[in-house]
Amino acid sequence: MYRVVGFLILLLFLLAIYYSVKSFKNLSVFKNIKNKFLVLLLSFIPLVIIFILFNTVNAIVVLAHYSFFLLMVFLVMKLLKKDNKDILVIVSVIITSLYLCYGAYQAYHVYETKYDIYTTKDIENIKIIQIADTHIGATFDGKGFRKHIEKISKIDSDLFVITGDFIDDDTTYEDMVESCASLSLLKSKYGVYYVNGNHDKGYYTREYTYNDFLDELRKNNVNILIDEVKEITNNVVLVGREDRQYSRKTIDDLVNNIDKSKYIIDLNHQPNDYDNEEGNVDLVLSGHTHGGQFFPIKYIGPLLKIDDEFYGLHTRKNTNFIVTSGMSDWAIDFKTGTYSEYIIINIHGDSYEKF
């Protein structure tokens, strides 16, 4: 599936370059230039500027959106029986710029999202704060993350969970250390818990090891759960799963010895094991998808079975599943199908007063 997605992205990139260059080549400013090769070279200048302003991934995003809006404006002009190549390009550039400015704001501004979960199990009310996909160094560095944590730390909570991709290959040692240190500001009643994502261990060479990262988490009172079970209260149990990219225990193995009258919270970075998790646990918290990132990926993704869900609260049988869009992005500076967020989850026990 990922090879198919990769091929489609490459094809989209090549088409975006072709139609972008073609649109610029048709501008009236080049009409009097007889040398076609010179016109072609000059038509590449906007692309060169885009690749100077953005990294490769974001340049592809910009060109893809420009090509899409170019097609939309072209169709509208056809309906209106208008044929002006300059207007076509100018309007497409303006729409693309405005749309991606909106997308950049949605990516860099971190919202607060709340969910209320109700259970018939006899447990105390619990307030959980969840973050995921911070990818330190993407839309904020270590200092930027600290500012977010200073704000979040003012919220009274019982449990703080980090569901993967806290760092990635581009996270510097200094930012990693500072971000881990920021977690010491959190004062959740039952502590701070972390599970791996697919980026935390790293794919390439970086200036520190995965174990260095784990050591920094432990220094700052973060509990690491990798295929482990932790009893939070007499009636609430936390299950932390290894990321599905690596060898890991099944959910059946992890919950086998847990009293099913207790409320079981499953931390699983990738929302990819719903069939086995439903009925085995009460609540599954995930990230990874970035909320679909772009419209309409969060609607197409589940149809392609890339992940079980892409964003929000979903219920299967007696199990609730929450997928967060994450606090940041990996490499991409825009979110047009969702927004960056941290999550507050209020779990209401059956026999306790409501929040």
Q: What's the CATH H-level superfamily name of the largest domain?
A: Metallo-dependent phosphatases
Query: Which CATH class of the largest domain is shown?
Result: Alpha Beta
Q: What number of structural domains do the residues give?
A: 2
| Biggest β-sheet description | 6 strands, mixed
Helix content: 25-40%
* CATH fold-level topology of the largest domain: Purple Acid Phosphatase, chain A, domain 2
CATH architecture of the largest domain: 4-Layer Sandwich
Q: What do the pLDDT scores average to?
A: 92
Separation of termini? Answer: 43 Å
Helix run count: 11
Count the beta strands. 12
The chain-level structural class is alpha/beta
- Give, in order, the helices and strands: HHHHHEEHEHEHEEEHEHEHEEE
Shape: elongated
* Rounded radius of gyration (Å): 24 Å
Strand order across the biggest sheet?
1-12-2-3-4-5
What fraction of residues sit in β-strands?
Answer: 15-25%
- Give the uncertain stretches in residue-range form: none
Features:
355 residues; alpha/beta; Purple Acid Phosphatase, chain A, domain 2; 2 domains; 6-stranded mixed sheet; 11 helices; 38% helix
